[in-house]
Amino acid sequence: MPTASIQSDREAMTPRIDEVVPSAALPKGEVELHGENLGPTPNGPPIVVLGTHHAMVLMSRPGRVAFRVPDSATTALVEVRTPSGVSNGAQLKIARELSSGLHPVTSPAVSRSGMIYATISGQRGKQTPVSVVRVSPDGRGTPFVTGILNATGLAFSPDGDLFVTSRAEGNVYRIDGAGESTLYSEGMGVATGCAFDAQGNLFVGDRSGTIFKIDKDRKIFVYATLEPSVSAYHLAVDTEGTLYVTGPTLSSNDAIWAINTHGEARAWYRGLGRPQGLALASNGDIYVTASLHGRRGLVRIAPSGEATLVVAAPNLVGIAFSPLGSTILADGDAVYDVDLGVEGMVAF
Question: Taking the model in full, what pTM does it have?
Fold first, then answer.
């Protein structure tokens, strides 16, 4: 066969990446590459390289390859290598670890200056030496709050004060600028997620099935009731006062609940597996850490109901948008940041 013909055949079989799905991930996240000539050859599976790291190939077909992001990977170009050649490079954003050795069980909270607060929650009923850690945008973590048993939910009030729930005690604490805590409210059951509205009302989710409302005078009301959660409720409030709630159950078809200002709940979106932390974007999209069609990570849901996986990650529990422009993510051990180009909604 003429040399030119052989070269033409090889070029025709050279792998090509058209799309990286999703385009961002945490270490150990499972990502897919879509394109052509990506699948196995008679000589074996393709090789996926992310920067200088070889990734574990999970599945390979001519038009699609799935791989697991290596532990030590950073943002880089990903390429596919086969005996027929090397593909074009396509960028994959890898979230940057800011602080580890934590134990968040809901979303972190971010102050107006961009400081990040995350819990070291610990096993139920066991006190940890530090309850809340403060992490600077450049990743410097320092102990901030001590003495709260099983610190769980975090939220800033319209006045800029940090509030923390204790799922073991059923209490809510206010934290001052020096990290000192004072009791704000008690009797919240298994108090997990919390969020403020623009009027200063605090909503607290008792994972046994109740959403409490605590007004500015500290009067407590039963605001809504939902199906109990196997882990925690996670809350966020929009500019109109609608309260959005997730609370994973044993179902693989869980919902994001929308509760109006009269306490009436409806399923805003259904079809998630183990939905946990959620945050609202300024354009009306909701971002939630969940499993979508069997793939785990950060899911974006548009007001139209279209759901898309935007960050691949195996064990996310929380999300917050920083006023500095990045997205803050939390798994069971650490907090991360990644630039997704998303502006968070400011409810107050």
Answer: 0.95
